[in-house]
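Figure 6 in text form: structure in, sequence out.
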């Protein structure tokens, strides 16, 4: 799952990714993901966000659940070296671009996680939010269902979102509970997909009102998707990607792996963001 976060290109990446577009219409009630439990099955948590999004966030009518008629069959298939892409006729014009982006980033992400081999990944593409939600039950724009499967809304085209879900898949091969804690799982996926949102455009960061890393949520103007890239960037910059892997394997045990308190970790991340971006 992801939001509209990427603004810049990065020399680490084999192909430039377009700016990610996000549906800004407010959702009063939505499902969160990807949060696969220890069994490896995706758990979708339903929460009401009116209290968090503010008095104007939700209208009386609110979003309506997709009809069964919105469900579509993904009858078309594209096989590449490492992926099976399932899609429908509306996506015929974009599916090759998704395939190229996934293959171009596959080895880099696998190498980051020291994976010589990962299972073939099935990626399901739905042309709009309605068909994705009706077919998967998720109101997000993308979900990783297991270490070898993810689905997403394909249009408008979002290569960063596909690479984000690929990163989740590889992380789950590396460690089956890599979704725990969410702040770390999403930070890693954002970093690997280069979904970078400039801190100067995130009010809480620009105003130096930093959120608690441990309490970061999925929604709002200062969510994990707005700040997560900088968290992973800070860890890699300060300790290297090997330590990021150790944090994943420890389910985010900051004191145990980094040898510093949570309070100091928080303060050093804030200082990193200020020094680099503000």
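Output sequence:
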């Amino acid at each position: 799952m992801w939001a509209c976060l990427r603004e810049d290109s990065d020399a680490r990446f084999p192909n430039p990714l377009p700016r990610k577009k996000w549906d800004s219409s407010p959702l009063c009630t939505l499902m969160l993901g990807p949060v696969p439990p220890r069994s490896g099955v995706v758990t979708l948590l339903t929460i009401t966000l009116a209290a968090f999004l503010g008095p104007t966030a939700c209208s009386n009518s609110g979003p309506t659940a997709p009809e069964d008629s919105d469900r579509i069959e993904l009858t078309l298939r594209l096989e590449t070296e490492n992926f099976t892409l399932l899609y429908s006729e509306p996506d015929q014009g974009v599916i090759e671009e998704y395939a190229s982006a996934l293959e171009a980033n596959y080895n880099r992400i696998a190498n980051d996680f020291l994976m010589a081999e990962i299972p073939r990944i099935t990626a399901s593409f739905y042309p709009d939010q309605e068909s994705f939600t009706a077919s998967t039950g998720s109101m997000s724009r993308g979900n990783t269902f297991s270490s070898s499967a993810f689905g997403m809304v394909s249009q408008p085209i979002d290569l960063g979102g596909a690479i984000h879900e690929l990163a989740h898949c590889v992380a789950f091969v590396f460690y089956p509970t890599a979704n725990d804690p969410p702040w770390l799982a999403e930070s890693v996926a954002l970093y690997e997909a280069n979904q970078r949102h400039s801190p100067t455009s995130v009010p809480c960061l620009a105003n130096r009102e930093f959120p608690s890393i441990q309490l970061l949520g999925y929604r709002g103007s200062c969510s994990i998707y707005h700040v997560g890239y900088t968290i992973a960037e800070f860890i890699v910059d300060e300790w290297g990607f090997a330590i990021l892997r150790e944090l994943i394997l420890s389910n985010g045990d900051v004191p145990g792996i980094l040898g510093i308190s949570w309070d100091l970790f928080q303060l050093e991340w804030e200082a990193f963001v200020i020094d680099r971006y503000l």
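Caption detail: The first helix runs from residue 50 to 53.
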